[in-house]
Write a structure and sequence with these properties.
Oligomer: single chain
Order of helices and strands: HHHHHH
Radius of gyration: 39 Å
Strand content: under 5%
Structural class: mainly alpha
Low-confidence stretches: 189-208
Number of strands: 0
Length: about 220
Amino acid sequence: MNELQNSLKSLEQSCRRFRQQQFTFISALERTREHAHERTKPVSTLAQVQNYLDHHCHNTTDQGILTLFLDIVRDLSHTLQRLESMMTEDSPASYCLEACRTLLYHNNDLSHIRAKYPHDEVNHLSCNEARNYYGGVVSLIPVVLDLLQQGVTSSQRAQRRLAAEQGAETARSTRAGPLSNTTATQAGSGAVKKGGCSPYNEAGPWDTTKPAWRPPGPINKH
């Protein structure tokens, strides 16, 4: 889990670096959409961005920023897979993971998602850009990162709760152990005293209640 948290911190740094270059990203999408003759089409899927990079990107600046975007998306996918490998189906984080899987699917329609406060990616777009073209694609990374962080937090809470329950159960067992042994010993001693299994009776290893043995014959009285 610590390694996963370190991966998330590294992703946060990459996301901040990308957010600082959002204007460059939007400009790259504008040019590649024009080269692809899709000026009226919103950028709504990851497959679309990959297609622009592979076939319609004609300068290194555009290529660099689109590559950075897709690299971050790929890192998010890898982090999701690692988190999934640590979770069970009934984990409280399962909802977050399912949402991440859907959002990171290459042909999933992103046009309906919007990053909310405290994220400001959408606020840096014009109304027309946000509403019609880029609101979804710029919201993808912050939304998925938030979901992954929520998944990790939920998993940690579940692990702490389980550890606390196991610790309490161990403590109860430890307290009950000596008492049970003492009770069993007392019960065993009682059974022995009642003569059930002991070769000795209550008077000891022989019976001292009988009169002493005397030889046969008349008893001389003086």
